[in-house]
Amino acid sequence: MFCCCGSKKTDERKLDRGETLADVKERNRKTQAAKSFPVVPEAETDQSNKRVSVKMTEPVTIQKKKSESEIAKRQSMKKKKSSKKFDIHFPPMGVKLRVLKDILSDPSIDSSMTTLDIFHDTIKLVTQEVRLSFAEWISEYNDDSLVGKPTVVVCHSWSTLFADLTDALQQYLFDQELDPNLTFFWIDFICLNFYEKIERPRDWFQNKFNSNIKDIGKIITVVDQWDKPSVLSNSWCLWEIYSCISSQIPIYFSYPSKERKQLTDCLLNECEIVAFNYYSVDVMNSFCQNEKDKENIFSIINESIGADKLNGIVRENVRNWVVKFSLSLIEDNTAKDKKESSLLLNNVGMILFYQGKYQDAEPLLEQSLAIREKIFGQKHLEFSTSLNNIAGLKKAQGKLKDSEGLYKQDVSIMEQNFGNDHLNLATTLNNLATLYYSQERHGEAEMYFKKSLKISEDKFGPEHPFIATITNNIAAILQAESKFEEAETYYKKSLEIFEKSLGVSHAHVFSTLNNLGMLHEEQNHKEEAKSYYEKALKGLEVALGQTHPTTETVRKNLEKLIEKKDDNPSSTPQ
């Protein structure tokens, strides 16, 4: 627990020796009316979807009081240091995790309090008499061993629950096997002195900020919600992430314990939610309370990388980290539970597949198949699922003969062991039909599509996403047979179902828009085709990323249309 001793140079009244952090807060509440305070640069105003976290309950060691001689020595050192110049926008000091834990140990701190709440409830109250940053206050009046040269920068949102922030930093130390006594976190609300008038010139962002980040060499981004991180809507956080990417500084994303659990549950049970979470990033509409900072950040981004490209790069980094986290789960789980390991291997492999990373996906899917064959045998649904997924991978890699053999093997297993109306059979029939479509074997493709549609409608009803997938694929067959009006009806029906069942921002919606563009281009309706392609491309760049194979397909379709080439556009069957 913090103990406060020493005296304030600008005030005759001394801080009482042996006071705790809570004591200082309470005394300042009673003895001093609230004074005006600089606007907090990154204070989030929208906290409508903050999540409740359990308060940390680790024991906190009581610090010894400083002797009068120690105080005098410290004050003397302060005078000597006062003439030394440093960047007031980025003071070269960090704090140990113990500082955050000590704040949490205050009985008045509630587990639902955000970083912004802690700033006003604790940081501001404790420092308003001495007008120092909280890190300086700790160093001057408490225990200077808790403050040191920063070893890692913390990128976070002020709307993050403070307990979650602390938990995420604790997890970072554990994952990286770092000594908490040798790790000093640079955290803005603790290390910046908000009593100083801070005006950051444009060249500071371009030069000094990057230089400070490089000197420290590490950054940790706190992901308060795995599926919708607050940092991705914060201008300053996006700038920090971009600065690290441009300077080739590794970024570590850390989740609080409850978010790690939620992400793990999704990976095991609903991997498509993880795969198709497009992580909305829009730097030009991000939040920044300091308008001058916002203006400088936006100006530099627009003149350098451009907002759209930055959005894509940040989004891709977050996605890559989710995969890295997923792979770490596989590594941790392999020796413990073979059944769960096979599920993780399959699902993470499918996430990589959906991201177009076929080479990375292949060994995971093959490992999953091998484990499932050993555990369950070839007459089990889990084995059938793995077989179907590898067949889809082979198709995407252009290994069509291998893909067809695997699909037919899966159809045989399903029909012999589970009957002719099982949903897994419908999935494999649809996938086999798309393979035949890609080979222009339209008669076989139409037959299998219709078999799949009948099974699916009987099981799901008319408005399930899988019905939309098959409907889209039947439309592609009709288009190939030059039945354009029928094809458009099927495409629009597919689009309507996808929008209702998956939402208007899902990748399947934009793939269907591409197919409508392809249909109109083939009929020489160039303006309609261009409109569909542009909508599809814009959506897929967000949903799947700028380098995903499906995004590239649509981009090429649009480019060919604009160049007025006669090449047939490429459709994107589901």
Structural commentary:
The radius of gyration is 29 Å and the shape is elongated. α1 (21-31) packs across α4 (115-127), α13 runs antiparallel to α14 and α16 (381-396) packs parallel to α18 (423-438). The chain has helices spanning 21-31, 68-81, 97-104, 115-127, 134-141, 162-176, 188-191, 202-216, 235-246, 257-269, 271-275, 291-303, 307-333, 338-354, 358-376, 381-396, 400-418, 423-438, 442-460, 465-480, 484-502, 507-522, 526-543, 549-563; strands at residues 4-7, 14-19, 94-95, 147-148, 152-155, 185-186, 219-222, 251-254. It is mainly alpha-helical and 574 residues long. It is 61% helix and 5% strand. Strands 6-5-7-8 form a four-stranded parallel β-sheet. Strands 1-2 form a two-stranded antiparallel sheet. α6 (162-176) links the parallel β5 (152-155) and β6 (185-186). The model is unreliable at 2-17, 33-66 and 73-85 (pLDDT under 50). The protein contains 24 helices and eight strands. The N and C termini lie far apart (59 Å).
Summary keywords:
24 helices; two-stranded antiparallel sheet; 8 strands; 4-stranded parallel sheet; mainly alpha; disordered N terminus; 574 residues
Care to count the β-strands?
Answer: 8
Gyration radius over CA: 29 Å
User: Could you report the average pLDDT, rounded to the nearest whole number?
Assistant: 83
Poorly predicted regions? 2-17, 33-66, 73-85
User: In DSSP terms, counting alpha (H) and pi (I) runs of 4 or more, how many helices?
Assistant: 24
Compose a concise summary of this entry.
The protein is mainly alpha-helical and 574 residues long. The protein has 24 helices and eight strands.
